[in-house]
């Protein structure tokens, strides 16, 4: 069977598993000389730096002036390699930062990398996505390649880019070249940097896919083309729904193991020795960040229009949503073992970022846990070397460095940053280990 691209650009050759291996830049085509990025968050900024490092002239657009100021001051959360790149490219012609999207018209290619969060009712908030796509359509010119990378619903590329471009007289596949390529960035993880992670691309036409691959080839080791933007959009939703379902299962087994007085980590490690049919997921206090708590809801939201149920996904997301409350309930039970009520208890949460090695608190379970503890009458503080302050229902809290054992009735381990010394937790009178990592700590309880 022929590759999607074999009749378009033969220098993209498939390997045995179907991945498109991109030839060295001097082989034939080298892709665009200039790329504009809309959105300079956890996806856009590392992508911009990777492109600049590959010799592409980059224009970074973000409507948030505070974000641009933070980037210019190098006060942004980046891996060391990207931090060095940022220092190297700031103030040079390799990387230009602006709030003006009109400048995108001068770029050979444009990548859209804006956030796609949920509102308080778990409904997709498309404000940033619609605004970014509208700005790109307005500035688009013939010959450009436009790639949407933001996670969204199936059909968003055609609805927000292809059709508006057509109304401007720019036909996808003829005048402009449009594709969807979902971001695959794991913040804080040096093992999963974009340069080591294959990309999926779905173009409106084969030529659209080929142009998008050229635009992205320098940011990934390989590119896997699919037949359409819709297939690429659903690929991203499958990836993170898979993770959500398995995290919910790991959390459920953690509760089962505690009930049976078995160490769930020992069981997971044993199961992980099976070389086929099993992938290890770890239990924890809940799920945070930009992807897993949000992305499956884009699918569920879209399916409501056709009244199509997705019971497994729905159950997993309900279980994930309930996990922070389970931490509070367990904390109350652990305190009760020592005769202490939740009301008035002095509780310290260790780590409020949604995952280790990042300063990001978006959708972090710690925020909900903290708020619920406060509503229960507890006196709650937190410590996090990467998060100086946190907005809660009780107001703004600052990270504390008070680790005196006698000052806390209960310590809840939520996020353990790898570069931080947590040995003091061993002196705490009572510990609720929601990370399942503190196996040697006395007075330890798990969820």
Q: For the terminal residues, how far apart are their CA atoms? A: 51 Å
Rg (CA only): 24 Å
Count of alpha/pi helices:
11
- Order of strands, main sheet, comes to 5-4-3-6-7-8-9-10
- The portion of residues forming beta strands comes to 15-25%
The shape is globular
What is the averaged pLDDT score?
92
If you consult CATH, what is the topology of the largest domain? Answer: Rossmann fold
Question: What level of helicity do the residues show?
Answer: 25-40%
How many E strands? 17
Main beta-sheet annotation:
8 strands, mixed
Classification by helices and strands: alpha/beta
Oligomeric state of shown chains = single chain
Named CATH architecture of the largest domain: 3-Layer(aba) Sandwich
Broad CATH class of the largest domain: Alpha Beta
Order of helices and strands: EEEHEHHEEHEHEEHEHHHHEHEEEEEE
Number of domains: 2
CATH homologous superfamily placement of the largest domain: NAD(P)-binding Rossmann-like Domain
Given as residue ranges, the uncertain stretches (5+ residues, pLDDT < 50) are 1-29
Describe the structure.
The protein is of the alpha/beta class and 447 residues long. The chain has two domains: 12-227, Rossmann fold (3-Layer(aba) Sandwich), CATH 3.40.50.720; 265-446, NAD(P)-binding Rossmann-like Domain (Rossmann fold). Helices cover 34% and strands 15% of the residues. The protein has helices at 44-53, 65-72, 80-89, 127-139, 156-167, 206-216, 229-259, 264-271, 295-304, 311-337, 365-375; strands spanning 12-14, 20-22, 34-38, 57-61, 95-98, 109-112, 145-148, 177-180, 199-203, 223-226, 346-350, 379-383, 389-392, 395-398, 410-413, 431-433, 444-446. Strands 5-4-3-6-7-8-9-10 form an eight-stranded mixed beta sheet, sandwiched between helices. Strand 9 (199-203), helix 6 and strand 10 (223-226) form a beta-alpha-beta unit. Helix 1 (44-53) packs across helix 3 and helix 7 packs across helix 9 (295-304). The longest helix has 31 residues, at 229-259. It is globular. Residues 348-440 form the UDP-glucose/GDP-mannose dehydrogenase C-terminal domain. One of its GO terms (molecular function) is NAD binding. This is Nucleotide sugar dehydrogenase. Belongs to the UDP-glucose/GDP-mannose dehydrogenase family.
